[in-house]
Amino acid sequence: MDRGLLFVVSMVMGCLAPGVSGNGHLSFANNTEVHITRTGCGLIKLCVETPEQCDPTGETGCLFASIVTTAPSSPNGVDLLVELVGDSSGYIALGLTANETEGTSMVFICAQNRNGSFFFRSAQRNNLNNTISLTQRIVKNITGSVNGTVIQCKFRVPAVNAPTRTSHVTTFATFLAVGNVTNGMGIGDINIRLTNKPLNLADPTSNVATAGSSALTSQAVIVLLSVLMYRLS
């Protein structure tokens, strides 16, 4: 059987159902294609990746995530629509936290077991000592595929609120990580590959605003110098 196994599940992590164990392990199979691209980055979805601007459709070593949020609904927060893709013989992960140097992080893990089958976990990271423990957070509409070492997945995280005193319930520091799968489907140590400053996940441009501002400033300086040179000539 081809190792590019495709899986779809729609579930509630905190409830037990056929194929869902108490720690949230999922192994439902379905023939649904998972295809993640950069289309819409900075326009309709917030994208984070390492290396910078890498192509998730085929570039080796590209660890990529995109996030789209629904409109805030107090006090329920927002739903996060997440895409995640990367190379790993174990797992890839997206982390969200109020402060990456204290407290905890929500971690969403897309993984493959020894047979190359896809499975999903939600976890919590201790930001002080980098330890990770499994949780039973509600996650829905999970779709995943494995092809060799390339893992791709999509999922929805409902009712998310940032635990901060900011004006945005959608402001989180984010990180991308990889790790090993142990004993078939256990989650090994987490290795963070990229950490971003706090970003407003509801704003697709929030992680490119600085670069955009710098570009505009440079253009303004060039125009000003041109005017001065014209007047001095």
Automatic annotation (TrEMBL):
Residues 1-22 form the signal peptide. It comes from Salmo salar (Atlantic salmon). This is Ferric-chelate reductase 1. One of its GO terms (biological process) is regulation of postsynaptic membrane neurotransmitter receptor levels. InterPro entries: FRRS1L (IPR042789). Keywords: Signal.
